Amino acid sequence: MKKKFWLSSAAILASLTLVACGGGNTSESSSTSEASSATGDKVTLKFAALESGYGAEMWPEIIEAYQKANPNVTVELNQNKEIEDVLSPQMKAGDFPDVVMVSVGRQKALPETLLKEKAIADISDVFTKKVYGEDVTVKDKILNGVVGSTITDPYADGKQYMAPMFYAPTGMFYNKTLLKEKGWEVPKNMDEMKALGEKAKAEGIALFTFPGSGYFDSFLPVLLANSGGPQLFADAMSYKEGVYVSADATKAFTAMGDILAYVEPTTVANGNPQNYMKNQQLVLDNKAIFMPNGTWVVGEMADAPRAEGFEWGVAAPPAVTTGGDQYAYSFIEQLWVPEGAENKDAAKEFITYLYSDEAAKLFAKHSAAQPIKDVVNMLDAEQKALYEFTNTATGIINGGFKATKPVEGVSIKEVMYDTIDSVATGEKTVEEWQKAIEEVSAKFRAALE
């Protein structure tokens, strides 16, 4: 049902809290990197990558370009559709790659296991180094909010362990043609959102629908960030005491309740694995304007009937207040360096190159978009239409609930997101929903690892 990405097979980290970071190319680089750049010493860099939906040719092209730019480095590629099965026995035998492109969220959970074992290297300094071949630091090139998130800092120690590589933004998907024909604008704040809801209602069109309540795991977090900044979102994902009933959180929950007041009536009944596409079809039929979703929905509904002239559009969820922030949530794939890697400095230097314009254009050829500024202009027209709204968003948030010991008989994700169905039908109030989340949050706070 959900998250059927054109992305590589691991773009699914909404419920995980992990790390990110990158490598650099400056005079600050040490040991191996300095040797390869300054003395001409040859370095062999072992790179292991998942052969994903981007195809088998993407990484060889990147490697060829890098070796041309830096002839002192030879990159040995180990690429496989089940790369974990290849790497696990090798690493157990002490044979570590220098760089690994395998995201969290895959069934075999290789990076998650290594994070628990403190076996992934701190690569925080990558972000302060210059991109290889460019006069700009990695941090200055990456989109606001991506570095320092719960994804990049899994231990909440201010250090980064995973480099964010490719992103798939989520947002409010809609038909551009419908709004154009009606003379309606995409709402930038909640006042405008409610005003549009009334206009649409007068014409028999619902303001909002959703495939299923689980899709709010990338929508409600944005409302929290829009209300209290990324810190409020981070506090919520870390079960901070009182966060869900705080004044800023209340603004976000109130906004969610206001939006749910305009939900298309059949939405909740069809919001299940069997019928969720009926809700998505509401947007294609101009029976509802907006739905929370991700880039995968375009492919998922490619063969579905649609209103004449239908054209996909994506917008960031509305600001809670007029002139307020509008963040976007994105699923992000990651690249990392094992603690046992022999060439960490050369690995970091290579990572910085992956954020170069040269590399980004090669990635874009294979439909892989990096979370860097101006990447939208490197994408083809179809992709650009799905990504361009991130250019004007306040920033990108990503990540999910912090890992805890199991809490028997309760799921905070179910309480936080599944209860939205009851709020939409009027069975529960927003206040009751907030209180329930705060209560279950306390149980997970006590179970933090």
UniProtKB/TrEMBL annotation:
PROSITE patterns membership: PROKAR_LIPOPROTEIN (PS51257)
Descriptive protein name: Carbohydrate ABC transporter substrate-binding protein
InterPro entries for the chain: Bact_solute-bd_prot1 (IPR050490), Bind_CPR0540 (IPR022387), SBP (IPR006059)
Signal sequence range: 1-20
Keywords from the named record: Signal
Organism of derivation: Granulicatella seriolae
Domain of life: Bacteria
